[in-house]
Structure formats: C-alpha cells, structure tokens
Specification:
Strand content of chain A: under 5%
Oligomer: heterodimer
Largest sheet of chain A: none
Distance between the termini of chain B: 77 Å
Order of helices and strands of chain B: HEHHEEHHHEEEEEEHEEHEH
Shape of chain A: globular
Number of strands of chain A: 0
Low-confidence stretches of chain B: none
Helix content of chain A: 40-55%
Structural class of chain B: alpha+beta
Largest sheet of chain B: 5 strands, antiparallel
Number of strands of chain B: 12
Structural class of chain A: mainly alpha
Largest interface: A-B, 27 and 24 residues
Low-confidence stretches of chain A: none
Strand content of chain B: 25-35%
Mean pLDDT of chain A: 87
Strand order of the largest sheet of chain B: 7-6-5-4-8
Radius of gyration of chain B: 33 Å
Order of helices and strands of chain A: HH
Distance between the termini of chain A: 26 Å
Number of helices of chain A: 2
Radius of gyration of chain A: 11 Å
Mean pLDDT of chain B: 85
Chain lengths: 52, 316
C-alpha cells in the first residue's frame, strides 16, 4: 500500500488509471471515482469524459 | 606562469615568500615560481614601485640585492601569504569535493591535499561542515561507465525499464556514452536481449565493471543519432491511434508516421512502437481520449485491462 501526497487529482487519476489493474485507489473516494470514470471510458462502457 | 593574469597573484605571493626565504638566490626563487630569472627580476622591479598610499619612498616595498640573492627590507604590510575569502574559496572547495567524490579519480590523494591547502588558505571559513557534496546517481555512474568503455570491459547492469515498470539484471558490452536533450545515455550490446540497446543512465540502478572483456558481435552497430535517440524502424509495431484535440501533442511527441484530421477535430495518427507498453499506459490514463484503432489485439488488450481494473473496484 502506497500513500502518495498530491494536489492535482486529475494528474494522479491519470497516473493511477495508466497502471490499469496494477493499481487500485483505496482512498480518497473522489480519486477512486475519478480513476473509475477514466477506466470506464477506456473500456467503452461510457463515452470519453470532457476536460480530462 | 608569465601571463599578466598570473602575474598579480605571483606578485602578491612573492613578498611573503622572500621573507620566508631571506637571501634566497634569484635562480632558486625563479625555479620555485616556475618562471625565468628575467621574469622574476622584472617582477621584483615592479614590486619595488608598489606599496602603501602616500607613495613616498618610506611607503613602498623595499628590496635588497646582494649579488644574485634578494631580501625584503620593507614589506609594506604584505607579510602574510595570500588568503582566500570565503566567497573565493567556496567554488574551489565545491569543485574539489565534487572531484573527490567522483569514482575513478586516479589521484585522490592529490585532490585531498589540494583541498586541505585551499581550506587552509581560507582560514577555516569553508570547512567540511560548511560544504558537503553528494553527487547524484548520474554523476556517480558516468565515470564508471566511461571507465568500462575505455578499458573494454563488460558491465553487469541493473536497469529500470519505465515502459514495463520492471527492473532487470543483465550483462552488457558498453560501446558509447552520449548526451541528448539534457540526458545521458549508454549504448551497448545487451547479451540478454541479444541486440543493441540504449540505456538511460538515470534509470541504471547499479553498474559493476566485470573482469571479462567486452565482446560485442562484429556486426553490432551504433545507431545514427541525427534523428534522435529513438529511431522508428520498419520492424517496429505500427499503431494507429485516434486522439482528441487535447491529446494532439501525441503526434509531435511520438513522431507520427502519418496524421489526418477528422471532421470532428479528432486526429488519426500512426506511430511506430518499439514497446506497446507506453501506448497501453497512455490509452488507459486518457479517459477514452486516446483510442487504439489498430492493431486490434492491442486495442482488445487495453479494453481487457480496463475491465480488469474496474473489476477491482466492484467491491468498493
């Protein structure tokens, strides 16, 4: 388990999503939601999110 | 040391030197300063005209000549050897400490002696507590890598491959160090991959020079760097991506083979890929703004990876 300080949620969500199944966000929930949304867009279950 | 830039420090050093060697032969003094006797005589004649404000005979440096020897009669206050201010000594101490930390320095004793002299000349104002130098990994590694190349020795390398996020151990036959865009690289024959490879020095975790000789195959060729470190080649995978305008930079950053703009503003670009891992990471992190159109197996692999990652969140 890694604890990573951050101040840019978009940047960290992109980095975590880039790792695919190799990384899962445990906390905070808004970061986990952001990663989840990115992965859903890649998986094709939702259209690409705007502004990401 | 006969140039004008060297003359001033020599003149400043001469008076205390002559005081410490009263009546020394001019020939010996010239030899000690590494100059000719004629040059030393010209220096002494100039010193004779230097001194304290007022410039009367009693204010100027006075020398006494006895045959071929010389003594100081009046030093005009220049009785101490040249001292360095902290500001003057600091760059020298930093440079020498850096040199002392460098692996492969052949005469470390000489560096340490010079350091002691400079610190002494600075009257202790720049000591080990004031300046501590610790080299970054690249600065530490480069002399080791260069030494292996110079001696024709193989290297045991522990290397981090960012695109696969893995660290591997391998034996390489180093051939060239070069720098491009501010980064240092090592080009070598990799015995593990059985091919030429370029390693970023800042991603080398460890490098040990081996006893065995480097022995790259005769047909191992250094790459042409005129087009950059990565040279797309026909044998590399050709990936076709569709990118949203926010990711248009991908075409420039990864040197696309071709690029077309679709009616909705998205770009369709073709890139040569030596390792598809970076395409996978780019697409996974892009929130759907980078879509792999081909090869189909790569597109499917990325979708599958996204689904696997999503499954991990299903219990949350």
């Amino acid at each position: 388990v890694l604890t990573v300080p951050f101040n840019d949620l978009t940047w960290l969500a992109r980095a975590a999503a880039s790792a695919g199944a190799g990384a899962r966000v445990l906390d905070p929930p808004d970061l986990a939601d952001a990663v989840h949304a990115r992965l859903r867009a890649v998986a094709g279950t939702v259209p690409a999110a705007a502004g990401s | 040391m006969t140039g004008e830039r060297e003359r001033l420090p020599r003149l400043l050093a001469l008076v205390p030197y002559l005081q410490a060697h009263d009546g020394i032969a001019i020939e010996q003094a010239a030899a000690d300063f590494g100059i000719t006797e004629d040059q030393l005589r010209r220096d002494l004649q100039l010193l004779w005209m230097c001194g304290l404000p007022g410039h009367s005979p009693g204010d100027l440096i006075d020398l006494s000549f006895d045959g071929d020897s010389v003594s100081v009669i009046f030093d005009a206050g220049m009785s101490r050897p040249l001292r360095l201010t902290a500001e003057e000594a600091l760059p020298l101490v930093v440079a020498l400490r850096t040199l002392a930390e460098m692996p492969g320095v052949t005469d470390r004793d000489a560096v340490e002696r010079a350091l002691a002299k400079v610190e002494s000349a600075a009257s202790g104002s720049v000591d080990a507590q004031t300046v501590a130098v610790q080299l970054d990994r690249v600065s530490t590694l480069i002399p080791v890598l260069q030494s292996a190349i110079d001696k024709g020795r193989a290297l045991a390398l522990r290397y981090y491959t960012a695109t696969r996020d893995e660290t591997t151990d391998r034996v390489i036959d180093p051939m060239r160090l070069f720098e491009m865009d501010g980064r240092a690289y090592l080009e070598a024959w990799c015995r593990r991959a059985e091919g030429m490879r370029v390693f970023r020095v800042d991603r080398i975790d460890k490098a040990d020079v081996l006893d065995e000789a480097a022995n790259p195959p005769p047909d191992a060729e250094l790459r042409d760097l005129s087009e950059g470190v990565f040279t797309p080649a026909p044998e590399h995978l050709l990936a076709v991506l569709r990118v949203d305008p926010a990711y248009a930079w991908v075409a420039d950053y990864y040197l696309s083979d071709s690029e077309t703009v679709e009616p909705d503003g998205r770009r369709r670009i073709s890139v040569r890929v030596a390792d598809p891992a970076w395409v996978r990471a780019l697409a996974l992190g892009s929130a759907g703004h980078v879509e792999v159109l081909s090869p189909e197996w790569l597109a499917e692999s990325i979708r599958g990876e996204a689904l696997s990652a999503l499954a991990a969140y299903s219990g949350q």
